[in-house]
Amino acid sequence: MTPAEAEELQRGLRKGTSTVHVLLDQCSEIASTEHCRSGDPYAVTQMERNCLAACTASIEAEEQLLLPLLRHLQTTMTRIRKQRTINDAYMSSVRRIPREILSEIFLIAVALADNKRDSERYGSVYPNRKYNFAKVCRIWRAVALDTTALWTSIFLPPFESTRPWTNFGYRLQRTKKQPLDVRLAGRTGGSSSAWDLLLQESYRWRTLVVDDMACLDSESVAQPIALPTLETFTAKVDIVTGIDDVDAQGEFCRVFDNLGEAPQLRHVELDFVDICGPAKLRFPPIWQLTHLELRLHYCDRPNSLLPMIRQMAPTLRKLSVNVLDCEQFLRDHNAVLIHVPNLQSLSCTGMACFLFQHFAPPPQLTHLRIESYMDHHFLRSGVERISTYEALTELELVDVVWRAESLLSTFRCMPRLATLKIAETSADFVSQCMSGTVLAGLTRGGVDVHGAPTSPNPSCPLPNLTRMYIQLYSCETAKKAAAITSMALSRKVGGISDGVTFRPLDVFDFGLHDSIMLAATGDIPCWAT
């Protein structure tokens, strides 16, 4: 707009608005809001009607003259706001963020988003996966494409069409020969070309997650995959029958031989839906695992897991086994105990507690977690063997129903235990995990609590206990709340009781599943020193 055009616009606006204001003032003298509310509608004269009609016609004429000017002003204001935004963006310090820092910001943004959408955790090279921050500007797009870690997590779904994978090779180039985190959702189907490209890069797979082991059967993998840098392997195995993949002796079932060439593999997590048949499972001989997690939904005999555990026993440092249901246990009295010289952490859930019968006392085991154990005549003797774990310092009992006399007797053989956690997470275990007998057995004798000494307890266990955590589903009586309070306070201050030196309980934490009930038991003390 030229200066002459701007001056003409201003004159038109001043003239038009001045004329309109005069007309509006004339109208308001005859018709106003107050006249409409309180005036007599039958008292309007013909002269007033004619005057209002003339003013209305004049206002409409002026309006038609002002509308083009108004639209021109609106266009100008829109451009002003847009240009102001552009100016602010152009001068913003965000545009001057170093590329290295911008790359880290992108990685943090993706990590936060993936925590909210776990199903897309390995979706970086998924055909429809797009990063919105790469659309902000050319620089941001260039930084995103140059940030290798944004593209090294690869998710290969079982597509029936090859169309989404036409650019897979280009996408794979973005990884720049960096280690890959691979997830396979099922048979490759129409995406076989992408699978072939991915197999060519198997030498740099760092982690492998397999949602369906069928994608690694003989139809998809003609020969074992070379995985020289693989560190972590996670898989879901539907059904192991004990017939397929049996070795020459007909004894062991070898499910993972296509992944046998993985000398650096250390972490393995396996989720078995079902194991049936007499065959026992075995890992490829080159594997040397330090962390092993096994979850078994159902099986005929959980003993099928023992050969795998025995095979990895010399190198295992952390073992977690969860057996939800099984048909029967077979006790082999002639079986040689499994020695785990380097095991530091052990977790047994459900029927997996049968493992205690097969383990020699682990010399370095410091942390033990037992979960969902119901007192069972077959498992009881094995669970009681944890009293021989001399290095144990941390014990977690979650939804564990253990006879009080046996539990206290086991505690008395664990003088080094420093941390104890007992938890009820289900209404099915109310008052069964922490009974009054157990509370009384853990209470130091002869200690003043609220002005009264506790009952003598010469066999009170765990003299070196310094941290205790109790989580109950409910605390149904005031008597039980008082027993918990008495037990905790009796151990808060160290000292000698019945000739035994007890360390002070530095940390005591108590909680309930029902927060409303927790308020009712608010007198139970908690502390951390």
From TrEMBL:
InterPro entries: LRR_dom_sf
SUPFAM superfamilies: RNI-like (SSF52047)
Gene3D superfamilies the record matches: Ribonuclease Inhibitor
Protein name: Uncharacterized protein
Native source species: Schizophyllum amplum
